[in-house]
Amino acid sequence: MYTVEELQNLIEKEIKQRSEQLLLKTPVELYKPIQYSLDMGGKRLRPVLLLLSYNLFTDDVKPALPAAVAIEVFHNFTLLHDDIMDKASVRRNRPTVHIKFDANSAILSGDAMAFQSYKYLLECNLSNMTPVFDLFSTTAIEVCEGQQFDMDFENRMDVTAPEYLEMIRLKTAVLLACSLKAGALLANASVELSEELYRFGENLGLAFQLQDDLLDTFGDQKTFGKKIGGDILANKKTFLLIKALENASPDLRSDLLDWIQKEEFNPQEKVEAVTEIYKSSGAKKLAEEKVEIYFKQAMKILEDIQLDSAVKQPIKHLALKMLTRKH
Asked: Which of 110, 161, 307, 309 is the most buried (most CB within 10 A)?
């Protein structure tokens, strides 16, 4: 069995090689933003999960490497476009692609990355590719659906917690779930086992995104890699905001609505004030409890999967690392 660290190193080496190959193509201006995006690093969670899942059923993970690269390239494509829509200026402690280059470059290079991810997936010379392509395409559409819901929420003040959870399931969780299921399918695992790994990934993804929301507000920018309070400044309809609006006292709710409606404000003052409302309204505690619920459900699904516990240990190790992270 490979360790998480061994797979991360394997993927980093592969992505570096692929990135350098892209820069040999023309027009170079199309590929420079792609290289910049891929060279930003990151945790490479999705490709690692795909290879860990593949490794559950076969010893040599190298035949699945193109699929792992494909899922990472696709993920990074979504970040390019998300950062434009969210007007984000920092990603992994570096300027976002549309800041480093420009918005048009980020859009076009992001489009190229989406198509390039399919080219990499096509390199997999394995027997069970049809359901993997179907899964990959379905997931790609679901991610776009999640992003649309996220955009729709910007103009609504009546977003409910279930609506928000469905949005993050589509926008974040399904790609983690896809990674695990794709790895199993590529290794010719049974449909039942593949589906259980998908369910594990969905619950892990929901816990991961809720944890991400908490870190966006309560984390440390140096370790988190993004500006703290970005969701607050953008009035994003996060679980924290929804629960604060639901549970805050009338006075606190009035203060929160006032901050949401203000067009001119001191950013630091707004972040500090809203953060305090999240704490005093109990929204922070409710979000932490929700993270725990989804994480426990993910761990139960993993525990119940009919495979030797030692074989599942690397996936369990990564899941624990994901949910105890500070960045």
From this structure: 110
